[in-house]
Amino acid sequence: MIGTVTSRQEELQQHVWERLWSQPVSYEWDSVSQTVYEQLIALGGTLRGLNIAEAGSGTGKISLRLAREGAEVTLIDYSQQALANSKAAFDKESLSANYLFADIREIPLPDHSVDLTWNAGVLEHFSHEEQVRIVQEMIRITKPGGLLVILTPSAASLPYRLGKFAAEQSGKWMYGQETPVGTMEQVFRDAGLTLQEESRIGFLDSLAFLDFIAGTGPLKQIARQWYLTLTETEQRELPGYLLCSVGRTAPIQSEDLTSTSKEEQGTVVPGGLKQAMARIVQAQQLIREHHTPLEDTSSDELTRFQQVEASTWLPLVSILNRLLNERATAGSPARVLDIGPAYGTLLLFSALSGAECYALDNTTQYWSDALATRYGLQWIQRDIEAAGIPGSATYDIVLLTSVLEHLRYNPLPVLRNIHARLATPGSLLLTTPWKRYVDPLSPAKDFTDLPEYSHQTIADAAPLSPSSQESVSIKLYSIDEIYALAEAAGFSIQSLQPFNGYLQVWLIKL
């Protein structure tokens, strides 16, 4: 468990799970998994493309199926063995997932980053106060209007209660402290969420618990046969093994988009975030208009890219918007340098805000000369590691989004070069995938272990095509490494926050 174990009971419960997950784990599909899966589909509809977090993932068997069907899944558990089991199962099918070794009372995910957050067979092992805290964390990470689904053993399920009692009496119960749940209504209320619906599902699943009672085989068979003769309405009236409690987070109200953030209070930001986001949409539209007719550029590829790019830098938009407007209010347009701009959404956003805009990239495949001419964008093809920033001009803002992780050499020289070319005070806005989110279980490689750049090493290296560059492994950074890099390069970190698995960093040259 992450953090301090606060009680002997927690320590014992963690031992139960470590012992359970250390045994061979079956990933064969079973009836309980099917019941839970069908409920998630019934509640969420098609889950393809959704970001789904399982808070207390255990085997991760159901998340494995969701990933197989196109969902982007995050597995969170405080058992390293459970996560290792899940990763092995996912790797076996060449499926990807995010694995977080964490206490679900303190989930290391950014606010509003998940479409659906759920768990099954988890909250019954916690006290009421802990359940409230867990649900609050699940609310926090779920997007506005997103779903929370919590499945717990139902206190109304007689076969489950009888089997559990018999197993406890005989010493065969293997799941530690477990309190059946009558309703989650008070937990939801105390966590600040309205209970949208609650149902008891999986009657046939509950019959399996009768196996803890000797001689109940014939009873199970008769109960199953009888159940199958009932109508669907009659079946729904029978309390099943699982209590399914569902809530939905509040959607964003329109006035929220025009309100001033805490960071912007005291600063005049014309139009606020709503205007900024409208300008982002405008920039993307202009890029589509100029790039679609170009040879060797797929409009579908560009559209897909634009659909996801904002999820990697969205929190920086309000900061960039603030900085641009501060310069405009002072009567001097900001000079913006975007290193590795791809199609240039943030660069064009800056130009539409009145900034002088420059870009460096090691490839020309994303550029549009017509767009550059129309909006005064100055593009230069250049390898930032090999040749640095050209000229001697200084910039007010440098953008470095989704670039740091792709640098092949120690990044300090690049960051020091950026620091030297920033005006004082100047801002570097940086994003990079967060190691703890993307791949927490892999061995950490410190940035100081990366080779130092030299003209000899670059001369010896064969040039990489854009497709080949994407296949090269990237360097994932921890928050501690970002702070160490900033200090070594002479920056002060003004703000740092995780968002959708990316670190969003605002660095200042003082």
List keywords for this structure.
510 residues, alpha/beta, 21 helices, 14 strands, 19% strand, elongated
Please characterize this protein's 3D structure.
The structure is a single chain. The protein has 510 residues and is an alpha/beta fold. 43% of the residues lie in helices and 19% in strands. The chain has helices at residues 8-21, 31-44, 61-68, 80-92, 128-141, 158-170, 185-191, 203-206, 217-228, 232-237, 254-258, 272-291, 299-329, 345-352, 369-375, 384-387, 412-421, 435-438, 455-460, 466-471, 479-489; strands at 51-55, 72-77, 98-101, 114-120, 142-153, 195-201, 242-248, 335-339, 356-361, 377-381, 395-401, 422-433, 492-499, 502-509. The protein has a 7-stranded mixed sheet, with helices on both faces. A 7-stranded mixed sheet has the order 10-9-8-11-12-14-13, sandwiched between helices. The chain is elongated, with a radius of gyration of 27 Å.
Amount of beta strand = 15-25%
Distance between the termini: 40 Å
Give the beta-strand count: 14
Major beta sheet, specifics? Answer: 7 strands, mixed
Secondary structure: helix percent? 40-55%
Structural class: alpha/beta
What overall geometry do the principal axes of the alpha carbons give?
elongated
Total helical segments: 21
